[in-house]
Amino acid sequence: xxxxxxxxxxxxxxxxxxxxxxxxxxxxxxxxxxxxxxxxxxxxxxxxxxxxxxxxxxxxxxxxxxxxxxxxxxxxxxxxxxxxxxxxxxxxxxxxxxxxxxxxxxxxxx
Length: 110
What we know:
Elements: E1 4-11, H1 25-40, E2 47-51, E3 54-59, H2 62-72, E4 79-82, E5 86-91, H3 94-104
Antiparallel strand pairs: 1-5, 2-3, 2-4
């Protein structure tokens, strides 16, 4: 899949909520809820691993967090996320935007 950085960012306080119908949304909502605290504790640039709506651990890199998640929860969804005060906006193929818009039952903006 061809994803590319748009050169724009949004503050962590404006991260969008998970789709209420997304079964993996609890991990994203946990990140949204905890990112302010993690930043205040000085963890910017580290990666957090979240599973089942709970923080599992912090890691020096995203790769280490993702590897730990796939090793310990091989058949279960996890979220490995770099902790940032400003999140980069990523642009994907047009079909991805249409698919996501269909999943959230709303039209893409911007």
